[in-house]
Amino acid sequence: MDKREFLKTSGALVADGLLQRVAGAQKAAPRTNWAGNLTYGTNDLQTPGTVDEVRATVKSASRLRALGARHSFSSIADSTHEQVSLERLDEMTLDEKARTVTVGGGVKYSQLAPWLDAKGYALHNLASLPGITVAGACATATHGSGLHNGNLATAVAAMELVTADGGVLKLAKGKNGELFLGAVVALGSLGVVTRTTLNVQPTYQVAQSVYQNLSFDELGKHFEEVFASGYSVSVFTDWEHHRATQVWIKRRLAENSANDWQPEFFGAKLATEKLHPLAGHSTESVTEQEGKPGPWYDRLPHFRIGQTPSSGQELQTEYLVPWDRGFEAVLAVEKLHRHVSPLLFVTELRTIAPDRLWMSMAYERPSLAIHFTWKPMWPEVQKVLPMIEEQLRPFAPRPHWGKLFTLPPARLEPCYTQLPQFRALLAHYDPQRKFRNRFVNQSLYAS
Ligand SMILES: Cc1cc2nc3c(=O)[nH]c(=O)nc-3n(C[C@H](O)[C@H](O)[C@H](O)COP(=O)(O)OP(=O)(O)OC[C@H]3O[C@@H](n4cnc5c(N)ncnc54)[C@H](O)[C@@H]3O)c2cc1C
Question: Which of 18, 150, 396, 421 gives 154 a disulfide partner, CB atoms 3.0 to 4.6 angstroms apart?
């Protein structure tokens, strides 16, 4: 099935987190998210080219959502009124003295990372793909992996937003205390982010290698050692045969450091050719493996700049659980393998360091992320999600805001102790609820 066909067959189903709505009521050509599982509820897309134009757009709108690179699977970026894309705000400014870079609201990591590297600097981490915007990724607490790596939003040092009244709000870490911690992961609901300032560090090299077939028994016995074996580690499984299919280890190389890879890793075997996490997929899109050193931005993501990541015809779900109960949670999900595996392309396990960003899935909790890349079979997947959520109940799972879940608000609320403060923040800056949409209403206000 090619992408167009997939859009045709799945575009009528809108995964809403909680609800489905039938698409097709569009007047003009339907606009969809990247995966095609969601048809946006409006054709009114504004594309201002300056901060003043963003202010005018926001001021005149009755209801509005910012749109990034359209990579969320949930309806978090959707609107029934207007959307605003900042793709024309693409400036990037490096401040070497402050060790920060400031990017416009439309800049993607795929634009920023090579540019930054060429100037001798790097970010602390990246997601599995670089083609997402900094503003959109930070708004949903998008993450990579690494026991000591916070999500991508933890690199934010300052930000500039246009709030509901058209005013400009500038916030900086340290200067704005709790307000800043509430604003960084704001799910697109506090305002339109026109500039984000990120902490940078000197550029570095990374080498990655892949091991195949790590038994779950060994994974359980050496859980911490496995995830501590690299700067960023991803464990993939199809939930069959009580084993991980692949372990991707990304090592940060210091100058003159050894780059040796043992042929065995807790019984798993070192791959001698490049592998895609999804069996049978071409490896053209995948970043270099086999221990070949390369720049951070071409190794930390699994997928190369400009290439189709993952399958391209897929759905995604992810739950963050407490790291110290991570393997227990893995075994709980494994019990559902007969239901999960037939619908699944692959599961990925990653780690995220805790942070203090109110609405982050890793808020004050070192986390294991259990991710599912599903085949584009929403009616079936929708039935399995509540089963997984029930299995994970003892671990108070926090679903990724940008991916698909069915957890009701009553179960989300206790996971976010700062939710009352976040609601108060939104009420203060957006009393008319200009930036609310159905996803936000259902996820944060329906309980
Ligand atoms: C193939 C694929 C791989 C992925 N891999 C990962 C991964 O490795 N790790 C991970 O954590 N997630 C991953 N994701 C999920 C993805 O990173 C998030 O959904 C992310 O939010 C998408 O960013 P975007 O630029 O596409 O924003 P969108 O999806 O367009 O928007 C996301 C949110 O950001 C808000 N927003 C966007 N721009 C602005 C702005 N200027 N101001 C205010 N709010 C704004 C929107 O309103 C919305 O609420 C993946 C998704 C795909 C499709």
Answer: 150
Q: Which of 281, 390, 380 is nearest to 340 (CA)?
A: 380
pLDDT in tens, 392-410: 999 999 999 999 999 999 9
The dihedral of CA 44, 49, 55, 60: what is its sign? negative
Distance from Cα 267 to the centre of ligand 1, integer Å: 36
What is the Cα gyration radius of the chain? Answer: 21
Residue 91 and residue 160 in contact, taking contact as beta carbons nearer than 8 Å: no
Rounded CA-CA distance 126/443 in Å is 26
Query: Which of 133, 184, 236, 371, when mutated, tests ligand 1's pocket best, judged by the most ligand atoms within 8 Å of its CB?
Result: 133
What distance in Å separates the CA atoms of residue 198 and residue 136, rounded to the nearest whole number? Answer: 14
Give the pairing type, strands 344-352 and 232-237.
antiparallel
> Rounded to a whole number, what is the largest CA-CA distance in the chain?
62
- Between the alpha carbon of residue 340 and those of residues 19, 255, 334, 370, 372, the distances in Å are 21, 44, 9, 13, 9
In this structure, the strands spanning 82-85 and 156-162 are unpaired
Residue length of the chain: 447
pTM for the full predicted model? 0.94
- As a whole number, mean pLDDT of residues 282-298 equals 94
